[in-house]
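tl;dr need the bound structure. longer version: we got a ligand (flavin-adenine dinucleotide) that a collaborator sent over and nobodys looked at where it sits. i said id run it. heres the input, straight from their email, havent touched it
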Amino acid sequence: MNIVVVGCGFGGVEVVRTLRKEAKELDITMIDRKPQFDYQPAYPELLSGKVTPEEISCDLKKFATKIGAGFIHAEVVNIDFKAKKVKLKANAEDEGRDIPYDFLVIAIGAEQTFFGIPGAEKLSHTVNTLNDTIATKNALDKLDHSKESSIAVIGAGLTGVEVAGELVDYFKDRGALARIYLVELMPRILPALPKENVAIYVSKFLSDSGVEILTETAVQEVSEGEITFKDGRKLPYDIIIWTAGIKPNSLLEILAVPKVKGWLKVDFYLRVEGMDDVFAVGDTVYFEREGVRAGQNVEEAEGQGRVAAVNIVRTIKGEKLKRYRPKNTIQNPRALISLGDGKAVVYFGGMVFRVFAYRLKKFVEHRYMKRF
Ligand SMILES: Cc1cc2nc3c(=O)[nH]c(=O)nc-3n(C[C@H](O)[C@H](O)[C@H](O)COP(=O)(O)OP(=O)(O)OC[C@H]3O[C@@H](n4cnc5c(N)ncnc54)[C@H](O)[C@@H]3O)c2cc1C
């Protein structure tokens, strides 16, 4: 049996680890368009230099060898579900191979969206991939630090607040002046966390650190050096860091699979709806049952990875499948948010915890990276 896992982020890696534990005899092929795994939650700290790219990424080929799997560094451009083949993009060595599978796992994550706002994609930096984050850091390094800079972080979700906090440290460490704006469409920051308590605490922390928070502020257009908001206000900027919103991976657009708002629809067992041999995990998935929707975060990507792997093995053995039950949900989310200055906050069960939160965040990161 050959199991092919497309996408080796948090979800894909967990599928492979669990498959290997559950069934030593299976052939496993990992495919990713990047040669390395990157620990995305640490990207904001890359900006301030608290971590280096080497500390938060690892070679997927080495990991695959260690775990007894194959690794192909290539982009998947199509999937033929009838012929059970994954189509790879042509490169210098071949014209785009087809990789056959018995079972397939789709774990291709999500992409940044700019909501079609004119100028936004072209003129913004992001922290969506390791390369994007390194490019953003390089842009910060190129600023004239003898003058005051203006940095606009668009989107005050989990990533936006972390980026704003790290920017404070970046400029403080260089003794440079900057106006850091955190721009949010909704009436408060961290709108995805239902209780206001965490937003109140984080807003105060960031404001006290010098971040200027602009809520109920919608970007209408971005032009060279200036953002125009819907209410007519204008904001001059040196760098924009766009952290607002994700959209489904563009590969899904061409796949004939059931979708909800563009995301992959899966059943209770994480099979793509209507298919027995194709599973999907992580941010790419839309899973909602009885009014509870799984969140798009590391905890769920890993949890789904474990359940999908177990269910592949059970399908092969003809056993009853395991139901997936999300824990970190849209309705009841939990998060570990770093704020800069070695501080963090845990949001859990609607409550806010501060003591040891940053240490916990770093512990989770170190423990995760050790597996490679
Ligand atoms: C800056 C930032 C900070 C974050 N902080 C947190 C946090 O603190 N806590 C938290 O829970 N979540 C956080 N997240 C979200 C978290 O990273 C995602 O929820 C998680 O990575 C989802 O895992 P995944 O396996 O679905 O996708 P990913 O980890 O994104 O992996 C997808 C993989 O698929 C590969 N891929 C995509 N398309 C193709 C293709 N066509 N062919 C081949 N390979 C392909 C990609 O290269 C990638 O390796 C953060 C995200 C970002 C960007």
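gonna send this back to them w/ a short note. The pocket of flavin-adenine dinucleotide is lined by residues 6-12, 31-34, 40-41, 43, 75-76, 107-109, 127-128, 159, 249, 251, 282-284, 296-299, 301 (CB under 6 Å).
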